[in-house]
Design brief:
Adenylosuccinate Synthetase, subunit A, domain 2, Adenylosuccinate Synthetase, Chain A, domain 1, binds magnesium ion, binds guanosine-5'-diphosphate, alpha/beta, binds 6-O-phosphoryl inosine monophosphate, 13 helices, Adenylosuccinate Synthetase, Chain A, domain 3, single chain
């Protein structure tokens, strides 16, 4: 019963979507376990670019089923827009796209509140994607959320909306001086979507467990990354879910012993969108070069991504929390033209050297990266078809990452396309 978990090890945008698409070719079910349409997973197939926000990145393979798990928050309007966009592109997805009954919904007031709270935070803003993620998860935890299953019955949906809006109305008007949408407005806008969405709603927990019992391959797709995890990331500059593999058990309803393997995805350097500490961030020409060559602009909001060197000390948290042994390193080609490269191996923090990202850091200025310098390879890598075809300095760079993190690099990505993927070892599917 292979259950392979794929998750981001940095601050998101590691190239998870591309790798899920590659691996989905040998999976039966791809299941998203957390996040919402704050995610932007880019998949390039035959030079055609798809950006998936909510729908699992396995959807481009016609024989693969896709589940949006209970740990995901779903904006019904966005979901149907995404379904339509894929259908217009000629994909037949209705029969094989499924939604867990227990997944919570993002409703219009969550989006409005997310944006209002960002304005309220002023200089301390998180830089959220404005998609209502934190507010929908907040309602889930405070037990006033509305779930996919609730949308299917008109009276139940209206009743729950009324309770939620009785709470939200005074907050909108008295704290934020804003209008809150009414029950009728939301009913008119969202309830008509229930027929289409209802066809996709299933008992997601039984579905995943049946696949596993039948010994079919399940790939759990994470969104965001460990450093954005609500518990382990750079709080409060994080998202509101658990991208770490622990989120798989709660986000899909599978027992921990079912997880047969994990793949942590990291870029060969580091990026971050939004506010918050980023110790290896580069503010100079080198950072700008990474941004331009790596096309580092957010897939969801279009914001320029902050860029910096590979941070092994931050990555140690990902390894520690997840126990991951196999890494995927993406975007190696983006470093092709650099003369020399740096890797952060530790930080200077409160007069000491520490080799793991300390908790409680809210500003990059609190810690100073300790770097080592490695030789660049100054050779294009995109055409490399095997690990041995990578230039020696590129292999040395990867070997150093392996050594620093005590992991194996099993997949190397050298371009955005499916074909630009070097699978060095595929034991992770066993
Ligand atoms: P995700 O959120 O983790 O799925 O990552 P994004 O899709 O937001 O960002 C990764 C970006 O890098 C996308 O535009 C991908 O098409 C692109 N990409 C992925 N792997 C590679 C690679 O190895 N080389 C290059 N040049 N681009 C890549
Ligand atoms: P993928 O899956 C990168 C960031 C936002 C912000 C913080 C909180 O594509 O890797 P939120 O809207 O979640 O409340 O925003 O998290 N963020 C991401 N950054 N990639 C993502 O997803 C992200 N999803 C959220 O920029 O800093
Ligand atoms: Mg992304």
């Amino acid at each position: 019963m292979p259950l392979l978990v794929l998750f981001g090890c940095q601050w998101g945008d590691e190239g998870k979507g591309k790798i899920v698409d590659v691996l989905a070719g040998s999976a039966d079910l791809v299941a998203r376990y957390q996040g919402g349409n704050n995610a932007g997973h880019t998949v390039v197939v035959n030079d055609k670019k798809y950006i998936l926000h909510l729908i699992p990145s396995g959807i481009l393979h016609p024989d693969v089923a896709c589940l949006i798990g209970n740990g995901v928050v779903i904006d019904p309007e966005v979901l149907l827009q995404e379904v339509r966009a894929l259908e217009e592109g000629g994909l037949d997805i209705r029969e094989r796209l499924l939604i867990s009954q227990n997944a919570h919904l993002i409703l219009p007031y969550h989006r409005l509140m997310d944006k209002a709270m960002e304005v309220f935070r002023g200089k301390g803003k998180i830089g959220t994607t404005g998609r209502g993620i934190g507010c929908a998860y907040g309602d889930k935890i405070s037990r006033q959320g509305i779930r996919a299953i609730d949308l299917l019955e008109k009276d139940r949906f209206a009743g729950k909306l009324r309770i939620a809006l009785d709470y939200y109305h005074p907050i909108f008007s008295k704290v934020f001086d804003l209008n809150c949408p009414s029950v009728d407005e939301i009913m008119d806008k969202i309830f008509p979507l229930s027929a289409e969405i209802g066809e996709m709603v299933v008992d997601g927990v039984s579905l995943v467990n049946e696949y596993l019992e039948q010994d079919r391959r399940v790939l759990a797709e994470g969104a965001q990354g460990v450093m954005l995890d609500i518990d382990f990331g750079t709080y409060p500059y994080v998202t509101s879910s658990n991208p770490t593999p622990g989120g798989v058990c709660t986000g899909l309803g599978v027992a921990p012993q079912h997880i047969t393997d994990m793949l942590g995805v990291a870029k060969a350097y580091t990026t971050r969108v939004g506010s918050g500490p980023f110790p290896t961030e580069l503010f100079d020409e080198t950072g700008e070069t990474m941004r331009q060559i790596g096309a580092e602009f957010g897939a969801t909001t279009g914001r320029p991504r902050r860029c910096g060197w590979f941070d092994a000390a931050a990555m140690r948290r990902a390894v520690q929390i997840s126990g991951v042994r196999d890494l995927v390193i993406t975007k190696m080609d983006v470093l092709d033209q650099f003369e020399t490269l740096k890797i952060c191996t530790a930080y200077k923090y409160k007069g000491k050297t520490v080799d793991i990202f300390p908790f409680g850091i809210e500003d990059s200025g609190e810690i100073e990266p300790v770097y080592e310098t490695l030789a660049g390879w100054k050779t294009p890598t995109t055409g490399a078809a095997s690990f041995d075809e990578l230039p020696q300095a590129a292999r040395d760079y990867l070997a150093r990452i392996e050594e620093l993190l005590k992991v194996r690099v099993v997949i190397v990505s050298v371009g955005p396309g499916r074909e630009n993927t070097i699978i060095r070892c595929s034991s992770f599917w066993n």
